[in-house]
Design a protein that fits this description.
heterodimer, A: about 325 residues, alpha+beta, seven-stranded mixed sheet, six-stranded antiparallel sheet, about 15% helix, B: about 200 residues, alpha/beta, elongated
């Protein structure tokens, strides 16, 4: 904002405001020159920023004055009321959520305004004088708490390994068929392919026979810890051990420009809990992390709680499962 | 590197993604911009392609040029949405398309014929496709960043995000080091700085 106009924002609050709570304060304007304004407004804007495109969303707004002329040296005080009913602020590894209170003065006449990039002498004619302040918001509860629910676990390793192998085989097959390779190599390749496919089918069949479908039940324990209970459609006579842990992940999808990539950063990993010779039912308790992680579930940025289960059966065969944990 | 930075200096990490209006405030325009605008103003039907590897500023410049021209629809194509039906719905005078590779080849060939002035971003030149469609084209390569440009754009980003009045400066030595590691891959430079700042 041009030096001739100073805007102060006072909010009756300590360091951060509770989400959903109405906050009051004052907007104070000083001007060192006479300025005719068409209107003065304020807006609360949530910004999701990070290694992705910035998404801005207006979450609250208010009107201050219309057709007001700011006289040189005079101080103007206006009441301010803001409510942010949804978003906590967050500073993570690759994502941050900030909330900005912006005050906009729309002038009657266009004038040269020094923009933020003032050191480079960047000025442009405009009728809008704008200034902003970052405000911290915290959740009323600010605690990690799982949602009590039961889910069916999804095998990930078998599927991803299978797809990767099939893609590799198709690619290798296509390349080798177009090259002048000897008949023996072609036969060897076909035999290897058949072996891989058979191994993959066997792995899947053994898994369905010995591990079966697993149902996981999440239950919060008085906000201090949570319990995961496992039930299987099979008896687990051949299951030697379950290894269970959970992770809190920060996921960012960066689709800026002509390519898309995903950045995953692990904010927290619980200890690995082993359950030896589990029977048809098994239970395991976890403490919540000491740090609170807010709920972020935007199109480009998420905080995901993920359960990871390894089922070890005879002859060192392992089946891995992953499941997103729903948080309150 | 960037030892001068501290978290208290900024309202947010200055090296992350920006909104369009913020990008236009920090952009150091590529030398081709004026010529591209002249080509768009020119009456001849043609495709104008902004070619370059990932992270060289093609998309930012496409949006910047669109904002300077002030007319013509801009579509950002992605894996999830390629706007096929909307793009092929009828002839247009001017159209901006980011990431045209998300449109199938046959649709691209139809589109070249449908639009008078088509401005696109692409990793590789599609000269063969334009010739096949019988449409003229002009290609502009995006890439290459020098020390001054890099320092200027980083400094502008920091000014935009600053909360203190004293602006930290990234030294020339740091700029040289960034250029020697990442070359002209501006996106990778920003990612490195983003994570460096995040770890402070």
């Amino acid at each position: 904002m041009k030096d001739s106009v100073k805007v102060e924002v006072d909010i009756v609050s300590d360091s951060s405001i509770v989400v959903g709570q109405r906050s009051i304060g004052e907007i104070i304007l000083h001007s060192s020159e006479r300025l005719e304004t068409e209107n003065i407004e304020y807006r609360l804007i949530k910004e999701t920023r990070g290694l992705t495109r910035t998404i801005k969303e207006q979450i609250y707004g208010g009107f201050i004055a219309e057709n007001l002329t700011l006289e040189n040296g005079k101080r103007y005080v206006f009441p301010l009321e803001i409510v942010n009913s949804r978003y906590e602020t967050y500073k993570g590894k690759n994502i941050e959520v900030i909330v900005r209170l912006e005050v906009d003065l729309r002038l009657k006449d266009e004038r040269l305004i020094d923009h933020v990039i003032s050191n480079f002498g960047f000025t442009a004619p405009s009728r809008l004088l704008s200034t902003s302040r970052i405000i911290q918001f915290k959740s009323e509860y600010s605690k990690n708490e799982v949602e009590d629910r039961s889910v069916e676990l999804e095998i990930y390793s078998m599927f991803s390994q299978g797809v990767a192998l099939i893609i590799f085989l198709i690619a290798f097959g296509a390349i080798s068929m177009t090259q002048e390779v000897s008949q023996n190599i072609k036969i060897l390749f076909l035999a290897l392919s058949a072996l891989v496919v058979i191994a993959f089918i066997l792995y899947y069949l053994i898994g369905s026979k010995l591990v079966g479908l697993i149902n996981a039940e999440f239950e919060d324990r008085e906000g201090q810890r949570f319990q995961v209970g496992f039930k299987s459609s099979k008896n687990w006579n051949k299951v030697k051990k379950l290894g269970v842990r959970y992770k809190v992940l920060e996921e960012v999808i960066d689709d800026r420009g002509t390519t898309e990539s995903k950045e995953v950063y692990c904010l927290y990993t619980s200890e690995l809990k082993n359950i030896s010779t589990p029977q048809k039912h098994a239970r395991v308790d976890f403490d919540y992390p000491n740090q609170y992680y807010p709920r972020i579930d935007d199109e480009h940025a998420k905080i995901v709680w993920q359960l990871e289960v390894e089922v070890h059966i005879i002859r060192n065969l392992t089946y891995k499962f992953r499941q997103q944990i729903s948080m309150k | 590197m960037i030892d001068a930075l501290s978290k208290g200096d900024f309202n947010y990490n200055p090296f992350g993604g920006l909104s369009d209006d913020e990008s236009f405030r920090v952009i150091v325009p590529n030398r081709h911009v004026d010529q591209i605008i002249a080509d768009i103003d020119n009456s001849a039907k043609q495709v104008i392609e902004l070619v370059g590897k990932k992270g060289r500023g093609k998309t930012t410049h496409l949006k910047y040029i669109r904002s300077l021209i002030g007319t013509g629809d801009l579509f950002e194509l992605s894996k999830r949405e390629n706007f096929r039906n909307e793009l092929l719905s009828g002839p247009r005078e001017l159209l901006f398309i980011d990431s045209i590779h998300h449109l199938p080849l046959l649709d691209r060939l139809k589109l070249y014929k449908l639009v008078d002035k088509l401005v696109i971003t692409t990793h590789i030149s599609r000269a063969f496709e334009y010739s096949f469609s019988g449409v003229k084209y002009k290609g502009y390569r995006f890439g290459g960043v020098n020390k001054d440009q890099l320092q200027l754009v980083l400094q502008r980003r920091m000014e935009l995000a600053m909360s203190n009045t004293i602006l930290p400066k990234i030294s020339e030595k740091d700029i040289d080091k960034l250029l020697s590691i990442y070359g002209d891959d501006f996106r990778s430079i920003l990612k490195f700085l983003y994570q460096k700042y995040s770890d402070l």
